[in-house]
Recover the amino acids of this structure.
């Protein structure tokens, strides 16, 4: 398959799933009626549902999926480790911790941007801690270890916050939020997340050539003129920005950044640079598909997107490890 | 023309100098063999010369911006890393990165350079194979081809012939000799002193971080130095086939 065929194929899948996502929901309008209301409606109930509920939800699915897929591909390329993902360097966990603290202390209710702001702060603290731990010239291994330590710490602190919470309702709200979902989101969420995600996409997109060169190892890449220190900062800030924003609006959604690059890598001749845009598209498709599935599988039980992703993603990931264990050894 | 010049280059690991006031200069058209026992500081010297390690003293390469340096010198590290199962030709094409501006796709010139390097390293048949599926020696040749396509005036190679069969060892060093005839130069660290004596125009001998000898192979490989630095006795003669060096025994 040519490179062009793969990218057009992925773009078509995203487009098809986007339309399908717009047509999926409990309101039960016909497809023609829904699309007409979306494009030309005049403030009636159908066009309100389409424009204020389903459209932002589908757009968020694309944004969150692209951010998670792209971050996963960039981290795997940078760490030269197919098991890397945003959760690994502790960014997702710390973003979730920031959000949990905001929800538990009531900070989230104080002003409109408080929740995403808190999640972004958590992601940023994780990034700065990793930089401090791994040092300016630290190798990939140091980064992985620093990430594991920070993930563990963020997980422990999240548990502590929930453990000490005096309010059982707030605890249950927080636990549900942490499961990850795109239900009941609006254009407000799109507007909050987009600037941060866009910065992350640009930073990560610019690392493509450096990631290709890094296939030969850090020394050889440096001798090819790649500025490793700068690239490292771009990977880390890009990931923090994209994943922090995604966690802020959708909660913790795992496995996208892990599974998507795994599935696309063989199609693209394993080139880390090409894998970036492909994983962004693939991530968008996967999150769109999963978000359609949660509405179809258990329409009246509010199945959480993050739960479904983990249930589907974890066995798939086990399968991938099994299949690639020879290369991993 | 000087392609590399080091003045008083010193690298410390803690208090201990790993490279101690190394001074050398490499001009055009040389194959310089860097020899010395394990831990003499050969790899550290080359990495510091490239600016990959913090060091004291002067190296002519460190002052260059990274992109410019990548067009002046290619580096072939000892560790043969190939992280992903990319095709051999794709991997070799990475050597063209310094010649491409941001976002530029490789053109016919780049394709031709890759094809030439693959041919030189006897890899044309492997061009489309994933590099990770090749044997260790074949991977080493792929990485040498990657350094060749960088088309730099100077190549620094750290034990490029380790793990190669005799035919490909000789082919690699003869390739370096051809580059030298075109006015390019190679600094190559070697453990096989016989190969070094035959194929290098000059040898630099290191011992415990210091450069202890620098000159023509037969002058550097004197019995006293071999005894001093390597603790060995060897046969060295110049016959109709050129210099022949054969280590004989360890001096007790």
């Amino acid at each position: 398959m040519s490179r062009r065929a793969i990218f057009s194929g992925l773009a078509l899948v995203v487009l098809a799933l986007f339309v399908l996502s717009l047509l999926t929901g409990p309101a039960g309008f016909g497809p023609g009626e829904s699309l007409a209301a979306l494009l030309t409606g005049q403030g009636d109930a159908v066009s309100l549902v389409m424009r204020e509920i389903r459209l932002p939800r589908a757009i968020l699915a694309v944004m969150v999926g692209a951010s998670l897929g792209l971050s996963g591909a960039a981290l795997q390329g940078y760490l030269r480790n197919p098991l890397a993902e945003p959760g690994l360097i502790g960014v997702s966990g710390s973003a979730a911790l920031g959000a949990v603290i905001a929800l538990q202390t009531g900070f989230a209710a104080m002003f409109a941007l408080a929740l995403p702001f808190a999640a972004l702060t958590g992601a940023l603290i994780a990034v700065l801690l990793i930089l401090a731990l791994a040092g300016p010239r630290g190798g990939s291994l140091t980064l992985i270890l620093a990430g594991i330590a920070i993930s563990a710490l963020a997980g422990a602190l999240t548990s502590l916050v929930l453990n000490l919470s005096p309010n059982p309702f707030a605890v249950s709200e927080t636990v549900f939020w942490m499961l990850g979902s795109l239900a009941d989101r609006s254009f407000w969420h799109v507007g909050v997340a987009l600037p941060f995600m866009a910065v992350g996409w640009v930073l990560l997109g610019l690392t493509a050539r450096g990631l290709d060169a890094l296939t030969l190892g850090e020394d050889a890449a440096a001798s090819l003129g790649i500025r490793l220190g700068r690239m490292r900062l771009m990977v880390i800030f890009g990931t923090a920005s994209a994943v922090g924003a995604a966690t802020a609006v959708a909660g913790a959604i795992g496995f996208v950044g892990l599974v998507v690059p795994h599935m696309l890598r063989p199609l693209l001749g394993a080139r880390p640079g090409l894998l970036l845009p492909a994983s962004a598209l693939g991530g968008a498709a996967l999150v769109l598909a999963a978000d359609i599935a949660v509405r179809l599988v258990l329409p009246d039980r509010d199945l959480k997107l993050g739960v479904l992703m983990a249930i589907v993603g974890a066995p798939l990931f086990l399968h991938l490890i099994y299949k690639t264990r020879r290369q991993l050894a | 023309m000087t392609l590399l010049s080091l003045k008083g280059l010193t690298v410390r690991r803690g208090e201990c100098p790993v490279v101690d006031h190394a001074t050398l200069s490499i001009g055009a058209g040389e194959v310089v063999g860097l020899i010395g026992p394990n831990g003499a500081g050969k790899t550290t010297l080359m990495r510091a010369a490239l600016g990959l390690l913090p060091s004291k003293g002067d190296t002519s390469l460190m002052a260059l911006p990274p992109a410019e340096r990548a067009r002046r010198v290619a580096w072939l590290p000892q560790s043969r890393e190939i992280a992903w199962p990319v095709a051999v030709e794709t991997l070799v094409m990475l050597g063209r990165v310094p010649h491409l501006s941001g976002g530029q796709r490789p053109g016919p010139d780049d394709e031709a350079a890759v094809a030439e390097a693959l041919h030189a390293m006897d890899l044309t048949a492997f061009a489309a194979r994933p590099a990770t599926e090749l044997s260790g020696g074949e991977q080493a040749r792929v990485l040498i081809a990657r350094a060749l396509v960088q088309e730099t005036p100077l190549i620094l190679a750290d034990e490029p012939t380790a793990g190669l069969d005799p035919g490909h060892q000789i082919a690699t060093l003869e390739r370096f000799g051809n580059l030298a005839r075109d006015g390019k130069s190679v600094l190559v660290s070697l453990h096989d002193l016989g190969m070094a004596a035959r194929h290098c125009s000059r040898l630099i001998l290191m011992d415990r971080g210091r450069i202890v000898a620098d000159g023509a192979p037969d002058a550097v490989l004197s019995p006293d130095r071999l005894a001093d630095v390597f603790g060995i006795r060897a046969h060295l003669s110049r016959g109709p086939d050129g210099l022949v060096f054969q280590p004989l025994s360890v001096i007790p």
